[in-house]
Amino acid sequence: MRPPAPSALGLLLLLLLPPPPPPAEAAKKATPCKRCRELVRKFNQGMVDTAKKNFGGGNTAWEEKSLSKYEFSEVRLLEITESLCGSSDFECHSLLEEHEEHLEAWWLQLKKEYPDLFEWFCVKTLKVCCSPGTYGPDCLACQGGSERPCSGNGHCSGDGSRQGDGSCQCHLGYQGAACTDCVDGYFSSLRNETHSVCAACDESCKTCTGPTSRDCGQCAVGWLQEDGACVDVDECAAETPPCSDQQYCENVNGSFMCEECDSTCVGCTGKGPGHCKECIPGYTKESGQCADIDECAGAEKVCTRQDENCYNTPGSYVCVCPEGFEDTEDACVRTQTPGGQVTEEDPTQPPPHEDL
């Protein structure tokens, strides 16, 4: 069999090679520190999984002696490293292959002296990570110190990595370079050389010195200083109503809401047909509520054609000829059957629903 031509061989190789990752996937590629941290996490888990492997009953003295040998053995190291990387995790396999000698040296010679594998391997040996509370190429201490970065009230940019600038992204309620100051709406409930704690003001305060409405330095919008405390402003009681004619105003703490009137109202003071100022045409006030007027039940007949029926509807009425009657301009006339007989349907029976 002849070998394939060079051009055909090149095409075959191109087909066998995996496609390059899309730009978005490449952007999500893990940093060297994250890869090292994950490898150490799996290694530590491997140590837990193999801690008492193959031992569990029998001669205790023999087991303790054998377990002591196994604990630091190359056999156990091999078992741990074989389970570190998934079959398709190329980056993990590459990192492990490149630094396998370092891991072996730590396992056989340095483990007792440097029990923290992450600190020895990722921080001091590979120099791809930093210790907690430090950041950047030189692992400088974060704002507020490495023991309590950002005073415990924020996140240090680049914390634990060789990246970032060490600045603090403060938690809600805190501000300042080291997140020791309180923002408006919070007050300092504890502050000493090592700790700063900010607590929320009462909802009525924009600024405050304590937790109640009497501790406000300045009232929040929608609140007013009165008798030494910030009280809610009732916007609904204003001389000029804040809502439209077909809405009613509902006061809430620090603000108000405009709600739609009931559909039977012409203007209203609250929710439902019982709070209408006036009623829309076809409705009248009954027991304080807007209720439908039954025009068909009135003393004056509203459907005036002969044999015509009246049907009440919400807010109005309809005049309809009954089934078996023909609608003309002046009256409802009985229709004749094909045999010439006049139908005898009762004109008082209601028409089909679709005629209404």
UniProtKB/TrEMBL annotation:
Protein name from the UniProt record: protein disulfide-isomerase
Shown part of the complete sequence: 71 to 426 of 426
Catalytic reaction list: Catalyzes the rearrangement of -S-S- bonds in proteins
Top EC class of this enzyme: isomerase
Stretches for region Disordered: 334-356
Compartments reported by the entry: Endoplasmic reticulum
Single GO MF descriptor: protein disulfide isomerase activity
Enzyme Commission no: 5.3.4.1
Organism: Callorhinus ursinus (Northern fur seal)
Disulfide bonds: 170-179
Any one of the GO CC terms: endoplasmic reticulum
Gene behind this protein: LOC112831369
Ranges of residues in domain EGF-like: 138-180, 292-333
